[in-house]
């Protein structure tokens, strides 16, 4: 069970690639962003190779595998194509996410409870290559219990609803859901990560929750980097979460 106050920052570089793909250029290179992020204190690099390849490409993942000093967290849908690719690159961490072609971004968590046999088989297969498999789920007790049952060592709680909440009541309710989810995950013996939609203005309350292992943050960092540079954006975020996580 992870109960330390040391909280890790996983930097998601997908949206550096979004900017590149918008013009079909060679720049900006997410690989450069990853190296800058590491220099600025990132504990790991997250990439989501979407089925539609709207941002990260296979080339990015293959290069990252060669150059990262930290570790890769490879987000993927549960498809045969992705399973075979993951087996080829053997990332340190794999996060299984739900994916819909038309969605603007990952809208909800993976329905582990509704497809336990399928997710269990994927977790078993991916664990054989030495990856630590986590499941990107909503902070829902049913999904947390199912995650333990399918043998995943880790979960990542989807913080999108908290990030999108507008009224103080809604924010408090969504935060409480995450707090309860962290407690529930830890009591099931799982490593608990969190992420999606986290920003400089909403990250501290989540970073202050005891027992969270890692926060994965991307879109807000890439946006802020336009004004302060990628290293500056990562360093600011890292300082914020470390200060918030202090006992
Ligand atoms: C699963 C997750 O939360 C991230 O991969 C995030 O989704 C990346 O960005 P997009 O969802 O916008 O592709
Ligand atoms: N898994 C969440 C993630 O990697 C980053 O999501 P976002 O900060 O880009 O919304």
Automatic annotation (TrEMBL):
At which positions is 1-deoxy-D-xylulose 5-phosphate bound?
14-15, 50, 55, 105
Identify the metabolic or biological route this protein is part of: Cofactor biosynthesis; pyridoxine 5'-phosphate biosynthesis; pyridoxine 5'-phosphate from D-erythrose 4-phosphate: step 5/5
Active site (record annotation): 48, 75, 196
Gene Ontology terms describing biological process: pyridoxine biosynthetic process
Give the enzyme's EC designation: 2.6.99.2
For this UniProt entry, the molecular function terms from Gene Ontology, in alphabetical order, are: pyridoxine 5'-phosphate synthase activity
Q: Where is this site: Transition state stabilizer?
A: 156
| Reaction(s) this enzyme catalyzes, per UniProt | 3-amino-2-oxopropyl phosphate + 1-deoxy-D-xylulose 5-phosphate = pyridoxine 5'-phosphate + phosphate + 2 H2O + H(+)
| Family matches, as NCBIfam families | pdxJ (TIGR00559), PRK05265.1-1 (NF003623), PRK05265.1-3 (NF003625), PRK05265.1-5 (NF003627)
What interactions and quaternary structure are annotated? Homooctamer; tetramer of dimers.
Protein name in the entry: Pyridoxine 5'-phosphate synthase
Which species is the source of this protein?
Pseudomonas antarctica
Gene this protein is translated from: pdxJ
């Amino acid at each position: 069970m992870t109960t330390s106050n040391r909280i890790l920052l996983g930097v998601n570089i997908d949206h550096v690639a979004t900017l590149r793909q918008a013009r079909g250029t060679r720049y900006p290179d997410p690989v450069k962003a990853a190296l800058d992020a590491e220099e600025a204190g990132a504990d790991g690099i997250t990439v989501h190779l979407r089925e539609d390849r709207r941002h990260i490409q296979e080339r990015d993942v293959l290069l990252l595998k060669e150059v990262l000093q930290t570790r890769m967290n490879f987000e993927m849908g549960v498809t045969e194509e992705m399973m075979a690719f993951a087996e080829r690159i053997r990332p340190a961490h794999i996060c299984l996410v739900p994916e819909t072609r038309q969605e603007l971004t990952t809208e909800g968590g993976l329905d582990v409870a509704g497809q336990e046999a399928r997710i269990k088989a994927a977790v078993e297969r991916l664990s054989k290559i030495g990856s630590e498999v986590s499941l990107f789920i909503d902070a829902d007790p049913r999904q947390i219990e199912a995650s333990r049952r399918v043998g995943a060592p880790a979960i990542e709680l989807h913080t999108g609803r908290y990030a999108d909440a507008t009224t103080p009541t809604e924010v408090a309710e969504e935060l409480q859901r995450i707090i309860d989810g962290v407690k529930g995950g830890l009591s099931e013996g799982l490593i608990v990560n969190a992420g999606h939609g986290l920003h400089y203005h909403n990250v501290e309350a989540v970073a202050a929750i005891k027992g969270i292992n890692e926060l994965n943050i991307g879109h807000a960092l890439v946006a802020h980097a336009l004004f302060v540079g990628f290293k500056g954006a990562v360093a600011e975020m890292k300082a914020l979460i470390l200060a918030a996580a202090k006992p």
